[in-house]
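Exercise 7. Given the components listed, write out the predicted structure of the assembled complex. Treat all entries as one system.
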Amino acid sequence: MTPLDLPEAYKLAFSIVIGMLFGVVFCKSGLADPVAVRNALALRNGRLIKTLLFAMGLGTVLFFVTRRLGLTEVQVHRSYLWGSLFGGVFSGVGLVLCGLSAATALSSLGSGRLYALWSIAGMILAIPFVNVVTDFLSNTVYSWHRLSSPPEPKAFFDMSDPALYAAAGMCILLLLVHFTAGDKEE
Amino acid sequence: MAKTDGSNGAKSWPFYISGTVLAFLTVLSLYMFNDSIGLGDAMTMASEHCVEGVTEQDWDALPLDWQLGLLLGIFLGALGTSALSGGFKPKFSDGSGSVPRRMFTTPVLGILGGFLMMTGIQLSGDSVFGQFAAGMQLSGGAWIFLIAMAVSAVLLACLFAQRGGRNSAPVAKAEKPAKKKGGKK
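Answer.
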């Protein structure tokens, strides 16, 4: 078994359908709500954190299984230590200020929060800025410590398998969040 | 179990349902598209198309590929969910603070936050959603990105919350009864 190799037209059609499903999940999980995101970041409401931890843990296992079956392959962009680190910090600060990321900003806009347009405008403005400083970045951040590709584990219940540790770590964190910053309504 | 928490009328799902659907959809996307599913490339393409249109006055139609289709689908899915839930109502701010304060903070924080968010995405090479999907594939860079983002965001949000920061729903709810009591006296 191999991943689907669809023609471009089919890819486009399926991408719209899958995108719509993502839009539904973003709305239903509260990821499209900047106030809920800020409350989750301030550890006032654990439901969003639990959603993401649960998705990450389950997704790690699902990806492992589908990769072993040959249905999926590793598809990640090249990453650099300092680029990822600084990028994470910048994005974290941005997330607190606007409560949205690129995908959730669109779902937020779709759900009627017109003020998400400000965040989308900020995102669009940032791209030419990064293009201006791209030479500087190429000589600094992107020339230091390129990170290797993800490893290919042999068996899930092998102690050397990072997927096992990732899934276990997500379970422990989920329990921790559930009993400390859990959602009062659940 | 379903409840609303300010999701503009849409009833929220419990975390295990949202998490399961999110994980399945991400892996399904990897199977169907056999490509990294970050949305940063589509945003970059759209932005560069806008820049080209402004600088060269050349407004050709934006070439629609599957990544742009995914962005379009996300917008349409959210629109449909809110419309079908019966609570769709356009909002111009997140409803915290006084009106003059909101008129200033909503655009400023929105633009600044969006700018920083996209700068971080460009530095790391993929969008938050793409990094999340890469994290499922155990990419070291994605885990560094996600941990750095989570730590910085939680620290800053807790700092704001301690100093009576903006947009915290519990604080906003707590302020209302105090005002009513004052009014009765």
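Discussion: Confidence is low (pLDDT under 50) at residues 1-7, 167-185 of chain B. Chain B touches chain A through 126 residues (CB under 8 Å).
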